[in-house]
Design goal:
This protein has 206 residues and is of the alpha+beta class. It folds into two domains: 3-82, no CATH class; 84-197, Serine Threonine Protein Phosphatase 5, Tetratricopeptide repeat (Alpha Horseshoe). Helices cover 43% and strands 16% of the residues. It has six helices and seven strands; from the N terminus they run βββββββαααααα. The strands form three sheets. It has a three-stranded antiparallel beta sheet with strand order 2-1-7, with no helix packed on it. A two-stranded antiparallel ribbon has the order 3-4. Strand 5 and strand 6 form a beta hairpin. Helix 4 runs parallel beside helix 6. The longest helix has 20 residues, at 120-139. The chain is elongated and about 60 Å long. The structure holds zinc ion. Zinc ion (ZN) binds next to loops.
């Protein structure tokens, strides 16, 4: 089960203090076929990153200092941003010219987050963006070698979820051609390929 601890953080960009939360515990109950994790209780994913409500700088916990002195006045919180935090983080990384593979991973996480928060419009937008950035990462040759099998599988799965079955099948097939692919991933790619061949674009629970 998801439990949270409130925390005061200081933004490294604008210097303002805001209220956020960090995770004390989560309850993982499995994964979906696009490798998003499933959890019991409250969606924990918005709490893995933090957004300054004053300037929208978004990052991981270690980028923000803990604020020890709190003025006696109400503080803004980053609670309201929810899964949109992932969009802020991806935009920041794009602005900093980070590896497109890292940006794709942020959108993928945002997509998982939006699903758990039952926001299908945001989920499908993040799905498109995760797909586009992952494709760009392959085109630029910047996907780390050891992560290529999983990344190819995800391209197949993203395409299947979008209903582009022929392209999805090609990517599932390419997973098996990767020498470093783990057996479980090859098995999963063949399983998902069968769904694509039947024109089934539904997400599966593994
Ligand atoms: Zn700030």
């Amino acid at each position: 089960m998801t439990t949270l601890i409130p925390i005061h953080l200081k933004c490294p960009r604008c210097g303002k203090v805001f209220l956020s939360s960090v995770l004390a515990s989560t309850g993982s109950i499995g994964i979906y076929s696009d490798l998003c994790r499933r959890f019991s209780g409250l969606n924990p994913l918005p709490y893995l990153i933090h957004t300054c409500p004053y300037c929208t700088l978004t990052g991981y916990r270690d980028e923000f200092a803990r604020a020890s002195f709190i003025e006696n006045k109400p503080l803004l919180s980053d609670q309201e941003f929810g899964c949109k935090k992932y969009e802020f983080l991806a935009a920041r990384y794009a602005n900093e010219n980070k590896n497109p593979y890292e940006i794709a991973k942020v959108y993928h996480m945002g997509m998982c987050c939006a699903r758990l928060s039952k926001d299908p419009i945001l989920e499908s937008r993040f799905l498109m963006l995760a797909f586009e950035w992952l494709l760009k990462a392959f085109k630029e040759g910047v996907v780390p070698e050891k992560e290529k099998p999983v990344a190819l599988y995800l391209l197949g799965e993203f395409l299947r979820l979008m209903g582009k079955f022929d392209n999805a099948i090609e990517y599932y097939q390419s997973v098996a051609n990767q020498k470093s692919a783990d057996d479980w991933l090859v098995d999963l790619a063949f399983k998902q390929m069968k769904f694509a061949k039947k024109g089934d674009r539904k997400l599966k629970e593994l």
